[in-house]
Predict the 3D structure of the following.
Amino acid sequence: MAFSLPNNILELLRCPICRSRLDIHDQELVCRNGDCRGRFPIKDGRPILINEQNSLFKIADIQQNDEPPAPPRSRLRAALGDMLPHLTNNFRSKHNYARLTGLLLERAVEPRVLVVGGRVSGAGFEVLADAPQIQLIESDASLGPRTQIIFDAHDIPLADDSVDGVVTQAMLSYVADPWRVVDEIHRVLRPGGYVYGEAGFVHRVTEGAYDFTRFTHLGLRRLFRCFDEIDSGAVLGQATVLVWSLHHFLVSFARGNRTRMILSGAGRLLFHWIKYFDHLLLDRPSAFDNALAYYFIGQKNLNSRSDAEIIATYQGQL
Ligand SMILES: [Zn+2]
C-alpha cells in the first residue's frame, strides 16, 4: 500500500477514538489499545481516520464514494468562465500566507504544517505550498485533489505537540463545534507553534446542511483565545460583501441552469469592479464590522485571554 503521506508523518498518526498508536497493516490501520481496537481503512493510499461516535461522516460512505470528478463544462461555458471578470480580489490572504511562511521558517528549518479542511487550495495558499522547506499534511473530511489524510477535525488523529503550524481557511463555519476543533488544533501544535485561521462573517450559506456558524472579528479572536495574537483583521471587506450580494440577488431570479448561467455572467460583468473598493475600505473602522470574512494569525500559548482583554481589542466603529 503506497501511502500519500511520508513515513515521518505516518508515525504521528493516532487513533481518533482513544489517541493510542496505530499499527499499519496492508489495507487498514488498527488501534493498539486492546479496549478500543479501532480499525480504519486506507483508500487510494489515504487513511480514513474518523471517530464515527462523534462525527457526521461515515467511514463506509467515504470508502464507497469515489472522488467527485470535476463538473463537466461545455466549451462555451469554459470560455465564458475564463473570460468574465472575477467577483473577488483577495489580496490579504496572499499577504497573510507570506507572513505565516516567514514565521514558520524562522521557527524551524523544515517546519511541518497541518492543513485542516484543505481538499482544494484556498486563496493565497500557493505561497505556503510553494515553499520547499515546508512539509504539508493536507487533510479534509472528504476526498479531493489535495487530500492526503481524511478525518473529522473534531478528533484530529495526530499526536500531541506534533506540528509547527496549522492552517484552517474557510472551514470553521462548516463544523458543528468550532470550539472543539480549535482545542484540537491547540493540542496538536507544538509549544509556540503558529495557527492561521479564516472564517466567514457576512457570508451566505455555501455548504448546505453542513453550514453552521459565522464569526465576528472578536468572535474569531475568542475562538482562538488560547493563542497570542500576531495579527488579525478583515480578509475580504464590505466591497466584496456588496458585490456578492448583488450577484446573488440577480442569480436568485434564475429558474434553471441556463438562466442561472446567463444571470451569473451578467452579474460578473455588471458588478465586478466594486471589489476594488476593498483596497480603500478593508481596514477602515467604519467598514470593519461588515466584512465578508476575518483572519487570525496566532501563536500557541498555555494561558487563555480573558473576555475583558478580548473586547479591549475591538477595531470597529459603532
Ligand atoms: Zn483507539
